[in-house]
Amino acid sequence: MDRKYKNLCSPLRIGKTVFRNRMFSAPMGGTDISNDGCIGDKSKSFYELRAKGGAAVVTVSELMVHPATDGSHAYHLDESILNSLAQATYAADAIRRHGAIPSLELSHSGQFAGTYMTDKNKQKSMNQWGPSDGVRADGVPVKALTKEMIQEIVGAYGHVAGLAKRAGFGLLMVHGGHGWLINQFLSPLFNKRDDEYGGSLENRCRFAIEVLQSVREAVGPDFPVEFRLSGDEFVEDGYHLDEGIRIAKMLEPYCDIMHVSAGTYQKTFGITHPSMFEEHGRNVYLAAEIKKHLSIPVSTIGGLNDPAQLEEIITSGKADIVYMGRALLADPFMPQKVMENRDDEIVRCLRCFTCMAERATTSTRRCTVNPLIGREFEGDEVYPAAHPRKVMVAGGGPGGLYAAYTAARRGHDVTLYEKEAKTGGILKSEQALPFKHEMYELAETYRLFCEKAGVRIVTGTTVTKELCEQEKPDALIIAVGSSPIVPNIEGKERAVIVNNYYLEKDKVTDDVVILGGGLAGCECAVHLGREGKHVHLVEMRDALAVDANIRHRPLLLKELEKTVTVHTGLRGTRITEEGVYCLNKDNEEVLIPGTSVILAVGQRSNPCDELLDGAPYVRVIGDANKVSTITNAVYDGYHAALDIQ
Ligand SMILES: Cc1cc2nc3c(=O)[nH]c(=O)nc-3n(C[C@H](O)[C@H](O)[C@H](O)COP(=O)(O)O)c2cc1C
Q: How far, in Å, from the CA of 201 to the mean position of ligand 1?
């Protein structure tokens, strides 16, 4: 077979281990862990799906090697706990049986112990051990590890490495990046020791080398070991690429793969996990530079989701392996689709951070575009329906498209009706924002899925009671979405509605006022600011983007700071050719000047009561049910289709 992405699909041999391609699944841990620290069944199924999806390696994470001095990544391996080794073995089995190599990430969070705990108070009351005494930015005291404790931790790495090998893992990733303990030792920012573990670069690398030696001793010479390094910490007083290269060179003799990531979890979150405001692959240059100085294979990571870009990385020799995290949440079958030249079917990650936000707040796995993530254990198969039905879907937004696709996969006879000329619903408006183009493309991908699954798509047609009476469907899924709220203020007809910005760009001048500082208004403001316009953003409440998730929001606010003038606590009362007149909290009128205005004050569910008796089976989904997120619309759509009997 002539593979489109030959180099990306080519196997890689390291010692006696053959990796089936160059697409590896990155560590994504921290959820579904039992109270005694074992991997839960949900996690096992999650990892298994990644292996089924064609990744060459699936990394199970994040194993805490020394619980006595750690506490963040609550998963650990401990033979004194009855199920510990068994659950790890089942996890490794589940990956291996689909042809992938199971890898395990070994970690210690050092002075950031407790980061992933949902109980933040408990986290703060824990002992925090780091290379040096100090006080964290959040005021939590850190105690320096003694040399005896260091030796105990080094020994623990070896001990769990041996257990991991026994459990059937075929690769180990020692986490030396992202601000965790090994990184703390490598970094002049954290490491102020004056003994043989601090000071010179050689001394700062000592702990990492001892850990790698301890692991090697436990697993033997033929077992591949990978070191995860932040190529650049991107913080003042931390190390930068020049030193990253020197660190990599010093560690090279002790490992088989150098994995080059970037930054720290605590300070550069949006670089370590490149946000939608960053270039795809913005950290690849770090791997490429480091690779020039090493002879072992180098892996790269960060915001990668496009096979053409991945192929270029491998072909040009920037890296030997590409790791992906979020891209494989969005589409676990991405590697298999690449292998089969079906790259047009890849569902791209939006970098919306629903995954990381849910992990931090509820310890669950969620993905905006993949309703199955976190629910694999409940079954990821879409089985044929016992009784194929005539299904009507009203509305071609993301929820409606996903419902139609799922119903058609089950063998139902599905027609989707969209009142506008094109499917996509609210996502169509995202095409105007370059950093959200994947969100726009999502609707196109779902439409392609519908077409391939045999859904008839009828555009320019509104589903009415009469249409239902005429068509007599067995099932009706109502996905009619929501419409923008237009406040009843003087001059409102002068304004462009944010959802229509993509159609009416030419009405937006260089001095623009955006009324409404929710997610949509803020993201539009960032875009216009990036285009060089003078943007005033007006919000009634005291805070912006309160509807954004906890990971995306701080990054969005940071972007706003760069170009946008923000006014909170102001209520718009009239729009004139001078700008927007507002009332402040003291009921005084203020003018926010601008020659054009965008309204972004939220959405309201479209009415659908007349359709509720349109079929024996009726389900209202997504925004039509309750204005919410794409995540919920897609999830609703998927289940509405599965529930048709
Ligand atoms: C939900 C989620 C969980 C993660 N958990 C871990 C982890 O346990 N250990 C780790 O080293 N990195 C973790 N990461 C970081 C990823 O391994 C990766 O470095 C980062 O997401 C950037 O890659 P991406 O842009 O392909 O997602 C996690 C990322 C995500 C999205």
A: 27
Per the CATH hierarchy, to which homologous superfamily does domain 492-601 belong?
A: FAD/NAD(P)-binding domain (3.50.50.60)
Beta bridge partners of 572: 582
Domain ranges of the chain: 12-378, 390-484+605-642, 492-601
Q: Is 304 in the pocket of ligand 1 (CB under 6 A)?
A: yes
Of 91, 212, 218, the closest CA to residue 163 belongs to 218
Cβ–ligand 1 contact at 274 (below 6 Å): yes
Instruction: Pick left, alpha or beta for residue 262 (phi over 0 → left; psi -120 to 50 → alpha; otherwise beta).
Output: beta
26 lines ligand 1 (CB under 6 A): yes
| pLDDT tens digits, one per residue of 441-495 | 999 999 999 999 999 999 999 999 999 999 999 999 999 999 999 999 999 999 9
- Predicted TM-score (pTM) of the model is 0.95
Ligand 1 centre to CA of 79 (Å) is 27
Q: Which residues partner with 513 through β-bridges?
A: 536, 597
Architecture of domain 390-484+605-642: 3-Layer(aba) Sandwich (3.40)
Residues contacting residue 488 through CB under 8 Å, at least 6 positions apart: none
In ligand 1, which atom is closest to the CA atom of 173? 11
